Amino acid sequence: MALRTAWSLKSVPDTVSFYSSVLGMKEITFKGDRKALGFGQQKFNLHQVGKEFEPKAKRPTSGSADLCLITRTPLTTVAAHLQACGVDIEEGPVERSGAVGTISSLYFRDPDHNLIEISGDRKALGFGQQKFNLHQVGKEFEPKAKRPTSGSADLCLITRTPLTTVAAHLQACGVDIEEGPVERSGAVGTISSLYFRDPDHNLIEISVYK
């Protein structure tokens, strides 16, 4: 599904410049000299205040738009880009409710003071039928652990891949194996395990049942 909307603006050229430089939107010219912005499958028609094209909203007003744009780019990257462009972040990242689940959002304003929300899905890792939710230290989502601490996790992941293959892959990735393969007791029998650490120094155990 694609969306088309229209904005009334104090200056169409200033808006085109802002959105093309800050958000990478594409300038579109149609029907002579009318202007629009392209963003994925979305199109935003631009109207000069007092010179709106028909048909138009009943009360077209500069600064009345409130938009949420979804991105796959990490919000930390978005925030750094906005700051490099001299755009003040009004709020965020904060947790919000999206159309299909929880999102993380940050907010800023364009030259007409329209409110722009950039949102990304919360991040998680999938491993078989397991899901690991990821929280930024100091910006944890609720509900959370009583004392969320970087480097406090100790995980055991079961695989059917031979540990020699796992070890070779880790070494090819430049990951140091801290211990193993060694024999351990698993939930349903004896396992063979090797251990390494992630960038936060969480302890990761990869195990194979014998």
Describe the protein.
- This protein has 210 residues and is mainly β.
- Helix content is 15%, strand content 44%.
- The strands form 4 sheets. It has a 4-stranded mixed beta sheet, covered by helices on one side.
- The model has no long low-confidence stretch (mean pLDDT 85).
Radius of gyration, rounded?
25 Å
Number of discrete helical segments: 3
For the secondary structure, the number of strands is: 14
Helix content: 10-25%
Distance between the termini: 51 Å
Q: Based on CA inertia axes, which overall geometry fits?
A: elongated
Q: Please, what is the average pLDDT?
A: 85
Regions with little confidence, pLDDT below 50 for 5+ residues:
none
- Sketch the topology as an H/E string, one letter per element: EHEEEEHEEEEEEHEEE
Question: How is the biggest beta sheet arranged?
Answer: 4 strands, mixed
Given the helix and strand composition, which structural class is it? mainly beta
Major sheet: order of its strands? Answer: 1-4-3-2
**Beta strand %:** 35-45%
